[in-house]
Specification:
It catalyses: ATP + protein L-histidine = ADP + protein N-phospho-L-histidine. GO terms for molecular function: kinase activity. It comes from Streptomyces nigra. Strand 1, helix 11 and strand 2 (about 345-355) form a beta-alpha-beta unit. This protein is about 60% helix and about 10% strand. The chain is α+β, with helices and mostly antiparallel strands.
């Protein structure tokens, strides 16, 4: 193979990508395709103005040292002019952090009053760029400091003390800048984690609602199958017994008409929810409002203190879908009370008449002592609210003034 046509190894490109001219141009902000920076906020203006004032203050402090050095007045004036230009360049630190820091290294070598601008530029570089660039710039500054003090000795400090002071000051600026950078990255990470947690919580709530819809659809499927089977049996009886007495034919026709009407009602309800991919083959009858007494008796046998106040004149007249929803609300309320407030008295109240709706309330007192944590999905109340909403009603829950907890639902009946 012709060596001129060989391509460089991919791992070399990955490992030394930051040394390529294109990557270095991006770090220097010289890439023409790089998107523009956002406008400065009020806080950015305050910080930039503070950095400019700091650079000017340090430049004025060192200007006094320049005035006391044994150098020609022309060089002293040039030193201060270069320092003033360096302080003005501090306003470019956000746009070109690496370029400004690199440019100020030779500037600070020839101008003592530009030292404040160099410190600000090095700090900005440590905040906005990776450590490898900070190490090169800080290392170049430290390496040039002995030569600088050998050419221009400080009138107040010995040579070794001046060099050590520059090294310590450079390390402190780099360390503080890296600390600020790490803190910013941590805050960004925490915000991203909080957004992910909110997204996951929303997805879990949506999943709980979907599972509740599927459960309701399965229940409606069983009830609808029961009604259609009853309708088919009576229709088959009429087909095979055309000579049956008139009263029996009339009664069978009434049952068929009523079953068809109720089947249509259930079909309208089941269309409004998701159909589950799995069917419930347990064959157990779906609970209704009449099964509340059995549920309460079962809880009492388990050791709970439950008071049932059921003031419904005609429980048989309650629609099956409404009765199932009321049963599930009471069942979930008793389960929560048993888990989170064991030993407290629970009051179950069911009231309603046709035309005004059915009201279901489950309330328990404050738990006695510390309750050990009980594992659970935490989505039961979300599923109950979804049930009540799909049934055309509403559900509210929350802590009571005495430290207990209550669930209250209203379901349409009429």
């Amino acid at each position: 193979m012709n060596p001129d046509t060989q391509q460089p190894a991919p791992q070399l490109l990955v490992g030394r990508r930051w040394l390529l001219p294109s990557a270095l141009a991006k770090e220097f902000d010289l890439d023409p395709d790089r998107p523009g920076r956002p406008r400065r906020t009020a806080r950015d203006w305050v910080v930039d103005f503070g950095c400019f004032l700091l650079a000017v203050f340090l430049g004025l402090v060192t200007a006094d040292t320049v005035a006391r050095e044994d150098i020609p007045s022309g060089l002293a004036a040039a030193d201060q002019l270069i320092g003033a230009l360096a302080c003005a360049a501090v306003w470019l630190r956000r746009r070109w952090p690496l370029g400004l820091a690199v440019a100020l290294v030779p500037v600070c070598f020839v101008s003592n009053t530009a030292g404040g601008a160099g410190i600000v530029a090095l700090f900005t570089l440590a905040v906005h760029r990776p450590f490898r660039y900070v190490a090169w710039v800080a290392g170049a500054s430290v390496a040039l400091s002995p030569l600088y003090f050998w050419l221009r000795p400080d009138p107040d400090l010995p040579f070794a003390s001046a060099v050590v002071l520059v090294v310590v000051l450079t390390g402190a600026v780099v360390g503080w800048g890296m600390f600020v950078r790490s803190k910013r990255q941590l805050m960004v990470s925490l915000r991203d984690r909080a957004r992910r947690a909110e997204t996951e919580a929303r997805l879990r709530a949506e999943q709980a609602q979907r599972l509740a819809r599927e459960a309701i659809a399965r229940e409606m499927h069983d009830v609808l199958a029961h009604r259609l089977t009853l309708l088919s049996v009576h229709a088959g009886a009429l087909e095979f017994r055309p000579d049956a007495p008139r009263d029996e034919i009339q009664r069978a026709a009434g049952v068929i008409r009523e079953s068809a009407h109720e089947a249509l009602q259930d079909l309208r309800e089941i269309i409004g929810v998701l159909r589950a991919g799995e069917s419930d083959d347990s064959g157990r009858p779906q609970p209704t409002l009449a099964a509340l007494e059995g549920l309460v008796a079962e809880c009492r046998e388990a050791g709970m203190k439950v008071t049932l106040d059921q003031r419904v004149p005609d429980r048989a007249a309650v629609p099956a879908s409404v009765g199932r929803t009321a049963y599930r609300i009471v069942q979930e309320g008793l389960t929560n009370a048993r888990k989170h407030a064991p030993g407290t008295e629970v009051t179950v109240t069911v009231t309603g008449v046709p035309g005004e709706g059915l009201t279901v309330a489950v309330r328990n007192g404050a738990p006695q002592g510390e309750v050990p944590p009980v594992p659970g999905s935490g989505q039961g109340l979300i599923g109950l609210r979804e049930r009540a909403t799909l049934a055309g009603g509403r559900l509210e829950h929350g802590p009571a003034a005495d430290g207990g907890f209550g669930i209250r639902a209203w379901l349409p009946w009429g």
